[in-house]
Each structure stands twice: as C-alpha cells, then as structure tokens.
Amino acid sequence: MRAKALWAEMEVAVWHRYQKHGYCVYDEWMHQSGSWKQRSRMIVKASVDGNKTEGRYVVTHTSEGTSEEVHHAYSQRGDAENRIKEFKLDLCSGRTSCHRFLANQLRLLLNHASSILMKVLQLTLSVTAYAGAQVNTVRVRLLKVAASVVETSRRVCFHLPTSFPQQHLWHTLLARLQRAPG
What we know:
Blueprint: H1 2-16, E1 23-31, E2 40-49, E3 52-60, H2 67-90, H3 101-124, H4 135-143, E4 148-151, E5 156-159, H5 167-179
Antiparallel strand pairs: 1-2, 2-3, 4-5
C-alpha cells in the first residue's frame, strides 16, 4: 500500500520539474488492514507546490465518484469541521456555564457576532500575508495588542506602540474597510 502512495508522490515530483505552477496526481486502490472486517477504498492526492511535496489520504467505503471528486468532498467536510472548531475553541463559544438560559443565549449571540467580525477581517486580510489565516492567528497577532486609548468628546483613538511589528497591517485594514461598500 505504501509503495503505491510513494509512487504517486514520486510521479508528482518528476512532473513538477516540467510545470511552472504546482502539480497534483490522484491514485486509488482497495486495501484491508488486519483489524478491518472489509476492504476499503484508499485515495491519495500527491501534490507539489513550490518546494513543498505532500500526500493526503482518504479512506472510504463509497464506490461512487472519481478519486478527485471523493477527495474534494471529504476536504470540504474537513474544512467545515475546522470552522466549527475555530468557533468553539478560538472564540470560546463553548462557555455557556450560566444556569440561566437567556445569559447563555446572549453569550452565544455575542460569540456569533464576533465570528462575523472575524470573517470580515479575514476577507479584508485576503491580499496580505495573513490570507487564509485562522481566527486564532488573527486574534493573537493583530487584535491582542497593547494600545493606549484616547477618548475625546468626538472620537476614540487607539495609539499602537511604535514597535508593533504588524502596524502596517492595521493601516491596510483601515484603508480597505473604509473603501468597503455599506
């Protein structure tokens, strides 16, 4: 089994020499591990992008669809599970420890609002080095920053420290959010 996967990865590495952009290949075979009661369909996606070679595997019982279609379907499912995990762990939406229903409902509502705000930030950061960054990365590197707050009768100003390494991203975010419609 491992020999087939290595062959697929090797094929990708060879083809990558002739491609300007990344290349990937799909392969599949039937396999039965010692503890399994029946044979399962093993699908491998071997890819090279830049200098990075990787193999991703899917084990399934379905016989429908091509290797690429099945791998894509499982990848989407995994991405949805990652978004749920981000919502629960990174935004602490699992903290519904109050005994009153309305208090817990308010916490979930505020967590949902923060999730929407984080999605807006992620979309705004899509042209920066943080494109595709997870919620916790954005929260820790861009939002958890020591700042002095100056409040006047007309406005509230946040003064970031001059040594803050991501200060240019704040300016980019501000410019892009000000241009956003609505």
